[in-house]
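Quick one, tokens below. Sequence please?
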């Protein structure tokens, strides 16, 4: 099962997106519809709302008068918090029931207006945001729904802003065009990402891409942050820390478009405990890689290969390749991953040197069409430089008093 959180500001057109996805085969779980269900006449939810906001929120038939409730609940933060405290647990319980009823191979799309505000993104494999400029949404709410402009603006101001939504979004759907203009993009999303992603999760398939250098993408840190949030939810206390590492963690550095993350654990037994939960959530283990290449602490020195052991996971999302390195706290590979990132961030000359190395490595990889051969060529081209860089990075750490705890 693949779970997609669908959200966007009021008036952005989430229902339009849901309708198309439902036609394509998605199981839609609509939080607004569920929110109506849990406050139907005679329900415990409606009783709780009347106790908090009074009989004035009921119409003549004893049903919930939504405009009357909105006028009270959106008047101030305290009232809005009270509304959420009553409705959200009921919606959550019913939502869980509906998700559990979906087939094992379903793409479940949960339409949740306040997904970003509630910090719910980590619970989903992907978050899709439907975007329309705030002024255009006011225009639509007033024109098509007959909502007073003051109410429309109050509701919009009470929700997350566009920057917050963009940081939370794995998928950005711009619905600013004419009706129907977004449908081809939704269909492409379904066919090229959602359906393959679900199959990859179910079959434990890792998405691999031939190494290729691309221009630095300012969106990499946000993508890493979303992935870290999901990994934190999966790992819980078994992860001592989770960090964005590698070239995509260095601002302005061109890199292979793969987000590298490191989960620090107490020992390899914990790493093995995480294998199934990670795979179930779309991060299958890459079984044949069980260690980093050992590097000497000093030129001419030796290190025990055992302390370079690790576990490696990849991602099942066709549109976001990821490598997840699980390393033991205090072992040299775990520390070097953080040290190397910080060294590159701090030293312009080393960053330029590393970029030139990556260009040569990418050229070597481009001579091969098969993933295995290209990846091997890419790694082999960088290996000699890294043996020396390991020593140089530690010299820099000693000069600057760098430490893992301050990283």
């Amino acid at each position: 099962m693949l779970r997609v959180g669908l959200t966007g500001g009021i008036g952005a057109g989430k229902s339009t997106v849901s309708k198309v996805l439902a036609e394509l085969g998605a199981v839609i779980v609509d939080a607004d519809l569920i929110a109506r269900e849990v406050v139907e006449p005679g329900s415990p939810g409606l009783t709780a709302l009347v106790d908090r906001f009074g009989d004035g929120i009921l119409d003549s038939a004893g049903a919930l008068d939504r405009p009357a409730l909105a006028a009270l609940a959106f008047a101030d933060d305290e009232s809005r918090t009270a509304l959420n405290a009553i409705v959200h647990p009921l919606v959550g319980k019913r939502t869980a029931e509906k998700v559990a009823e979906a087939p094992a191979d379903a793409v479940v799309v949960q339409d949740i207006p306040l997904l970003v505000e509630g910090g719910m993104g980590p619970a989903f494999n992907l978050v899709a945001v439907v975007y329309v400029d705030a002024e255009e949404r006011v225009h639509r709410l007033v024109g098509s729904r007959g909502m007073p402009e003051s109410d429309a603006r109050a509701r919009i101001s009470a929700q997350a802003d566009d920057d917050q939504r963009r940081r939370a979004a794995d998928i950005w759907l711009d619905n600013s065009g004419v009706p129907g203009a977004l449908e081809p993009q939704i269909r492409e999303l379904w066919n090229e990402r959602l359906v393959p992603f679900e199959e990859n999760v179910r079959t434990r398939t890792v998405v691999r891409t031939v190494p290729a250098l691309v221009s630095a993408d300012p969106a990499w840190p946000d993508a890493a942050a979303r992935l870290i949030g999901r990994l934190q939810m999966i790992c819980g206390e078994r992860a001592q820390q989770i960090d964005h590492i590698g070239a995509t963690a260095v601002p302005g550095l061109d890199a292979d478009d793969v987000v590298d993350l490191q989960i620090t654990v107490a020992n390899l037994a914990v790493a093995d405990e995480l294998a199934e939960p990670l795979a179930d959530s779309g991060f299958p283990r890459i079984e044949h890689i069980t260690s980093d290449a050992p590097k000497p602490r000093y030129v001419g020195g030796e290190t025990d290969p055992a302390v370079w052991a690790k576990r490696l996971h990849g991602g099942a999302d066709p549109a976001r390749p990821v490598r997840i390195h699980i390393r033991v706290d205090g072992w040299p590979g775990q520390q070097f991953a953080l040290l190397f990132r910080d060294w590159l961030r701090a030293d312009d000359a080393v960053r330029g040197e590393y970029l030139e190395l990556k260009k040569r490595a990418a050229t070597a990889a481009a001579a091969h069409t098969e993933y295995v051969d290209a990846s091997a060529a890419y790694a082999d081209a960088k290996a000699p430089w890294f043996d020396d860089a390991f020593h140089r990075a530690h010299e820099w750490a000693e000069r600057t008093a760098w430490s893992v705890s301050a990283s």
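Residues 371-400 form the longest helix (30 residues). The chain has 15 helices and eleven strands.
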